[in-house]
Amino acid sequence: VWIQFEDKEEYEKKMGEIMEEIKDSDGNDRIVIYLKKEKAKKEMPASWNICAEQGMIERLKKRFGEGNVAVVS
Question: DSSP code of 29?
Fold first, then answer.
């Protein structure tokens, strides 16, 4: 699951929101953070893994924007 942020500053401001959304999800799907301005990606540790089911993806899209969340296999 890729979550895109405009830049590192925005990501750092919203890190708590990410944790809030994923805290109850447990699975094998890795989260990758992409910073658009810096053109950088960060694969989050396995402890951040989620279950990329439809409800979780919809919540992430609602919180971070439709175009900023993608499931990539």
Answer: B
Give the contacts of 57 (CB within 8 A, at least 6 positions apart).
1, 69, 71
**26 Cβ partners below 8 Å, 6+ apart?**
49, 50, 51
In the chain, the amino acid numbered 38 is E
Residue 24 is classified by DSSP as T
> Quick one: which of 8, 58, 1 has its CA closest to 32?
1
Q: Are 41 and 32 in contact (CB under 8 A)?
A: yes
7-60 pLDDT tens trace: 999 999 999 999 999 999 999 999 999 999 999 999 999 999 999 999 999 999
Q: How many other CB atoms are found less than 10 A from the CB of residue 23? A: 9
